[in-house]
Write a structure and sequence with these properties.
Layout: H1 3-21, E1 28-31, E2 34-37, H2 38-63, H3 69-90, H4 103-126, H5 135-161, H6 165-187
Helix pairs in contact: 1-2, 1-3, 2-3, 2-5, 3-4, 3-5, 4-6, 5-6
């Protein structure tokens, strides 16, 4: 197994560790008049490290010609699992500075988009077509990778400051999730115009 594939597997292995952080004893410290939970801080650090492996594995694979079928399959799966785990685990925990009631809706939108895109890619693959990730999809992933740690680490701080940057980031992530999903469907609508062979 080459280095990019090892990084992909490390990202997948990090997911249960990330989830386990939410069940650690609740210890906290105060900053700017807000209580910061150590377990959420650890979870955010693991999430960020996992996201860094996502950036690294693709670059290394392309630079050194280490692209494999295993990587093509597992890399997007690892990304989707990590994002889904993050969204599910923050739901219902009152971590955002405002509008926590929207988190279940945000989570459903994010996961539904990933199912939709995976379905389109499967249809494309069955017809011998490979669909590369688009610019909007990459922006969506980056904004999600910023929003989730912000909610985990700084939600209470933004609540105390009365400046909901974490919510703004999460809302932006959802907007890009919807936008990139719609763009993906429109650009690949030809797949559904073809008759089954």
């Amino acid at each position: 197994m080459n280095l990019p594939n090892k990084l992909t597997m490390a990202r997948i292995c990090a997911i249960p560790v990330f989830i386990a952080c939410f069940y650690l004893p609740d210890r906290s410290f105060e900053i700017l008049g807000a209580e910061i939970s150590i377990k959420y801080l650890i979870a955010a650090a693991i999430f960020i490290l996992a996201y860094i492996t996502d950036t690294l594995d693709g670059r290394i694979a392309r630079k050194y010609g280490l692209v494999t079928d295993f990587g093509k399959l597992m890399d997007p799966i690892a990304d989707k699992l990590l994002t889904a785990a993050g969204m599910i685990m923050i739901t219902g925990r009152d971590l955002m500075s405002i509008c926590n009631f929207l988190l279940p809706v945000f989570t459903v939108i994010v996961i539904a988009r990933e199912f939709l895109i995976s379905g389109i890619r499967l249809v494309a693959a069955s017809r011998g077509k490979v669909i590369a990730a688009g610019v909007l999809g990459k922006i969506k992933t980056t904004v999600q990778a910023i929003a989730l740690p912000l909610v985990l680490i700084a939600g209470p701080v933004f609540r105390a400051m009365r400046f909901p940057l974490d919510f703004i980031s999460m809302a932006a992530a959802v907007v890009f999730t919807i936008w990139s999903g719609v763009d993906y469907v429109i650009k690949n609508r030809g797949l559904f115009d073809q008759n089954e062979s």
